[in-house]
Amino acid sequence: MQQMKVLFTCAIALVGSLYAQEAVTAAPAQDHHTATESATKATIYKSIVRIEVASQVPDYKTPWNAGRFSGGTGTGFLIGKNQFLTNAHVVSNARRILITMHGSSRKHQARVVHVAHDCDLALLELVDFRPFADLAHLEIGSIPKLESEVRVIGYPMGGERISVTRGVVSRIDFRPYAHSRSDSHLIVQIDAAINPGNSGGPVLQDGKVAGVAFQGLTQADNTGYMIPTPVIRRFLKDIEDGSYDSYADLGAYDFALFNPAMRKVYNLQANDPGVLISSVTSGGSSSGSLKEGDILTAIDGYSVDSSGNITIAGERVNMNEIIERKFAGDKIQLDFIRDGKKLSKEISLKTFPPASMYSAQYGKKPRYLIQGGLVLQPLNRNLYAAHKLNNPRVRRLFSEYVKEGIFKERADILILTRVLDDPINSALSGYVGSAVKSINGVDITDIKQAHELLNPATPPEFFEIMLDGLDRPLIFPSKGLSEANQRISENYGVHKANNLSN
Q: What GO biological process, any one, is recorded here (predicted)?
């Protein structure tokens, strides 16, 4: 039986998209609703705005260039005084943001106040809020129940006016968020399409916000997803101090214990709780407390079943939902079995910056270094995708960067991504796509160190670069390097030889 690949897509409407779908515009139906209900809806619609974004997407293939310009539309809604909630992917890489009120043609300039790419939420404010000062603030409600009806309101492509669709909550789960490419959170599935332009719009139930529309499933019709209120409330709580600090992480990998033989090896009965800890991230929240081979049986008093789920408010959810609702610095209790003994430890949760290796990056200029036509760039998800890296060594460094603790010795993994042709680097193209191990005998830890080694006060006769997995070094002379750099700059339009920070 062929396995279907599940693909989530964000629902921002790209300007000029060939895949725009005609929206069904909500029309007043006075025969079925009272005048009071119609007035209430009109008030709500005023607080739901159309967002137009002009963006500039960084180019990881030619990082010295400004990147390509693009544009798109999405939806947002007012939740407080000059506070508009929307999706992070609606305003990612934004250079200009314009907001339009329902029923008006006037565009108002806005800016991003806080953005959380890991949970795909952003908070905007207007430069001049006065035209919106009298609008109602939408109230954040609770998670809708299964089989209950919700309304998705937004500005999908296909028309300029507001659109309303209805759907039924069909699933509450812990699934991937498409925007960051690496994070999973609580998610609510509804049987209503989330079309381009709907992103960032409210999903309402009983007049309150039950979620934020944000992505759809490409291989299913009328299947949309919304960010539920626990994720929204956590984002709003996180930014109360003026900055977004990201999610904390347990720092441990688990493995389900379904196999009867495995359960027998670990002396577990059929109904005993627990998952196997397959590895613990060095320097993470659980480091020094959990060990590989432990059986994690409970988190903060919630029993963990053999598939890694817990029960909260009558719903079975992934055990990481406990961590999801915490912040860096919060303490949790772990119950586990080690060598047949029941143990309990309290740990302090923390964020884990090295994990950003696996997250898509937005709003940042690519870091790079060019010397003698050699283009060196730090490895991350954006670079991996842009250059379609297939070197086995590079793929292992990427996949095991956190799990094997590679980050402790190599904050940056520098990749030779291009060789800009010049006589000084002739016959060096065979090295492209490899990771830099050392320069003139010094192991490379980050891009700033590499820059210093390639630009010393007293240059050596030759620069010798060793790459992971290759026995032969890459060698080029220092003599004539300055002239070569000038030629390369003119031939390839390289206006700046490096960008070491973002």
A: proteolysis
